[in-house]
Amino acid sequence: xxxxxxxxxxxxxxxxIAELYLFLTLGTHIGLVPTLLIILLTAVVxxxxxxxxxxxxxxxxxxxxxxxxxPHREALDGLLILLAGAVLLxxxxxxxxxxxxxxxxxxxxxxxxxxxxxxxxxxxIISPPGEQAPPFSRRRDDGDFIDV
Length: 148
Fold this sequence. Notes:
Layout: H1 3-30, H2 32-66, H3 72-89, H4 93-102, H5 105-122
């Protein structure tokens, strides 16, 4: 089995089964109405937090762009906040936990570092002839690049 298949299996089979188990377990302990209220409350609070942090991330992105800096940190923060919003709007206690964790800046910082390392391994910045290359780029002249 491929690693992608295993990841998809976990996302689409294991997570919903675990969510259903948690719904049933919590529902039997506190009742149906309180369980549904908790689900609605986490969705509303999560949406509000996602909106405020998303606005802040967008402002940081604009500021970095205006200062002439490459807004890679801000873009990754925005991506993680978008992911947090998506999982917070998905009903479930596990997904809500993941969503709220993604809204915590220290968690995003740690994930951002790992994502940046993965992206650095896949992408390369090459400056045009005559311009100085950014310090983080490597020059490779194998003809396999996209000029943007």
